[in-house]
Amino acid sequence: MNIATNLRSTAEYQAMDAAHHWHPFTDTAALNAKGARVFTGAEGVWLTDSDGNRILDGMAGLWCVNIGYGRHEVAEAVARQMRDLPYYNTFFQCTHPPAAEFAEALTAAAPDHLNRVFFTNSGSESNDTVFRLARVYWECMDKPTKKTFISRKNAYHGSTICGASLGGMAAPHRQGGLPMQGIHHIGQPYWFGEGRDMDAEEFGRMRARELEVAIDWLGEDNVAAFIAEPVQGAGGVIIPPESYFPEIARICAERNILLVADEVICGFGRTGNWWGSETFGIEPDLMPIAKGLTSGYVPMGGVFISDRVAGPLMDKAGEIYHGYTYSGHPAACAAGLASLRIMQEEQLVERVRDRAGPYLQQRWASLADHPLVGEARMVGLMGGLEIVRDKKTMERFDGEAEAGRRCRDTAVAQHGLVMRAVGDTMVISPPLVISEEECDELVGRARKSLDGLADELTRDGVALD
Ligand code: PXG
């Protein structure tokens, strides 16, 4: 609680913000008409807003505060680093202790074949880096025509031009003439949304085989890589059927296509293993990371580079003309190291795998008996819940009912719970430190939010079944 440090009223912050702050992914006019929610402090899984409300953060910020809020070890590590060496670059054959130590510690925690890490400042920059490195790799392999990336519809890979183009969401592509050239999208393994008339495993194999069809169509000599989130996060916590990734891995290997696992959300314990790639049994050639890398305390991203890719790059590429002023920023590395140590010392990943994950999964699954819920799914500590109008037919509400948006708003305003709405899919991704009691709170509040949604829809004359 640090209300005391609030120097101004909620209304004053909202007014300043409305006048001068342009928000990401926001309808600015709509936001300014009502004013932003002002957050002032946080501890563990609990946020405090400027009116003194305590809100359970079911989203770990934006899928990132894996160690939870209020870990002073991180603040102290960053402060110490800022006093010793607040900045130096890692260009021009220079390094510094936090970059070297963090690179070593991270690659020790990564799968065995990933022994190098390039640092960025965000997940988007990580994916831009992947796009460039993969193409340079194929140039080194004397296959310079291998340039196209295959991605998936409804994927999220960031907001730079390349990241937004790799992403497969229709709305961002409608603005500003995206996607850029050289990217092809195939279908996603979203069984509840798109495959319920089929056996889930059969559907998973079918969607994976779209990759083979796309490679044939584009020509194997033109395809550089396939990129996928192990579990699509922003797309609605889409957990692929078990059949999906083995088939993807087979196709990438047979067709000589790099496999990129975008672990920006799934990395650092989210799926109950250190890496989503482990959960789904794949060995990516490049692995972008961010978010849980520093638990969001300081902005940072990175790309793990496999031995397969690093070898030819080192042997043949010479200088690769790619890097960011803040690649390996000392304060970010210090934050990352401190966060990683907390995860390791407190065995947070094992905790998610063995205790918190199974506990919340079972509690979350209990929501499936709610009249508005078509499916409640979860892996590790990331969950999705499908709101439906008719539980028997799984028919959804039409978009105008705005069921997801209403549920989210009710959750935060009436029941003190942050959930995300992806259309009519509610998603959660709480800090990995969430206790069993807090899991109960989360699910209890989610249920009340669903009840509130039902009342609101009835009141507004939306037909329920
Ligand atoms: N890849 C994945 C898989 C992501 O989830 C990015 C890349 C881009 O990271 P940066 O750090 O550039 O934002 C992300 C980010 C949402 C939401 O509403 C999700 C993200 C970002 C913002 C909002 O679910 N994921």
Brief rundown of the structure:
This protein has 465 residues and is an alpha/beta fold.
Notes on the structure:
The chain is of the alpha/beta class and 465 residues long. The protein folds into two domains: 37-67 and 347-459, Aspartate Aminotransferase, domain 1, CATH 3.90.1150.10; 72-345, Type I PLP-dependent aspartate aminotransferase-like (Major domain) (Aspartate Aminotransferase, domain 2, 3-Layer(aba) Sandwich). The chain has helices at residues 10-20, 28-34, 60-63, 72-84, 97-109, 123-140, 161-166, 170-174, 191-194, 200-218, 244-255, 276-279, 307-317, 330-345, 348-365, 403-415, 436-459; strands at 39-43, 46-49, 54-57, 114-120, 148-152, 183-186, 223-228, 258-261, 286-289, 301-306, 373-379, 382-387, 417-418, 420-422, 425-428. The strands form four sheets. Strands 1-2-3-13 form a four-stranded mixed β-sheet. Strands 6-5-7-8 form a four-stranded parallel β-sheet, sandwiched between helices. Strands 11-12-15-14 form a four-stranded antiparallel β-sheet, with helices on one face. Strand 1 (39-43) and strand 2 (46-49) form a beta hairpin. Helix 4 runs antiparallel to helix 14, helix 5 packs parallel to helix 14 (330-345) and helix 16 crosses helix 17 (436-459). The chain is globular and about 65 Å long. The chain binds 3-[O-phosphonopyridoxyl]--amino-benzoic acid (PXG).
